[in-house]
Amino acid sequence: MAALDGLPPLRDVIARHGLDAKKSLGQNFLLDLNLTQKVARTAGPLDGCTVFEVGPGPGGLTRAILALGAEKVIAVERDPRCLPALAEIGAHYPGRLEVIEGDALKTDFEAMANGRPVKIIANLPYNVGTQLLVNWLTPRQWPPFWQSLTLMFQKEVGQRIVAEADDNHYGRLGVLCGWRTTAHMAFDIPPQAFTPPPKVTSTVVHLEPRPAPLDCDIQKLERVTHAAFGQRRKMLRQSLKPLGGEALLERAGIDPQRRAETLEVEEFVRLANLL
Ligand code: SAM
């Protein structure tokens, strides 16, 4: 892709700006520009889109998103050391890259969208990835401000996101994602593709919002899934005792002897709506 955007190889950028990876910031950089393009392409056509990126680092994924035609990228990066490298990308694509130095967990992405449709694409820092996803799944308004989320996670987290009933990885995250989105794992990325390599395989997950998820109060849904999966090996009549146990399950028409991981999303919603 050096030929595509004419910018220097990422290895040179990292060396020139002294961007030694910091573990505390979850820094595992993707330097293969074919791979960063593959991640960006998973978000679908980017022509004319506004893209929010979290953690651009030295900018490999940012470059792919811009090269694929995004009209504007707004990137939130916590590490100030990365800003000069990102400024070079901004100079190459005038007016199309805005970098905000800050903590994505404290960023109000919904306000930042300001009514325009956005796609979110990120190679997320592992320590904050799941929390960011939960934040994006629970915005103030639904349908949400984002058209799609294309996110890289540790594979095990990706499996939890896309899991459905009767899957070992199914839990609170799978219910939340299944309630509000359709999600699939697009492809895996091996540790050696990163610098430095993480201990585990990564995976790219693509999520699109359900325009009208089943009507349900999210706090109630979380109370049910928290109780049910908190004791996932137990029968629901036991794990849901604090919420009404057998009586609640009977009202919902659910066999009290079943276990949490056998319940479809609609059944969790039915329970939540009876609380
Ligand atoms: N996007 C780059 C890539 O694909 O090579 C870097 C990805 S690296 C896994 C994660 C990036 O997120 C790092 O640049 C790190 O500094 C940044 N980061 C870590 N915690 C953050 C936070 N709370 N808010 C914003 N950025 C954060």
Automatic annotation (TrEMBL):
It comes from Peteryoungia ipomoeae. Specifically dimethylates two adjacent adenosines (A1518 and A1519) in the loop of a conserved hairpin near the 3'-end of 16S rRNA in the 30S particle. May play a critical role in biogenesis of 30S subunits. Residues 35-211 form the Ribosomal RNA adenine methylase transferase N-terminal domain. One of its GO terms (molecular function) is RNA binding. This is Ribosomal RNA small subunit methyltransferase A. S-adenosyl-L-methionine binds at N28, L30, G55, E77, D103, N123. It is an enzyme of class 2 (transferase). The gene is rsmA. GO terms for cellular component: cytosol. Belongs to the class I-like SAM-binding methyltransferase superfamily. rRNA adenine N(6)-methyltransferase family. RsmA subfamily. CDD domains: AdoMet_MTases. Keywords: Cytoplasm, Methyltransferase, RNA-binding, rRNA processing, S-adenosyl-L-methionine, Transferase. Its EC number is 2.1.1.182. It catalyses: adenosine(1518)/adenosine(1519) in 16S rRNA + 4 S-adenosyl-L-methionine = N(6)-dimethyladenosine(1518)/N(6)-dimethyladenosine(1519) in 16S rRNA + 4 S-adenosyl-L-homocysteine + 4 H(+). InterPro entries: KsgA/Erm, rRNA_Ade_diMease-like_C, rRNA_Ade_Mease_Trfase_CS, rRNA_Ade_methylase_Trfase_N, rRNA_adenine_dimethylase, SAM-dependent_MTases_sf.
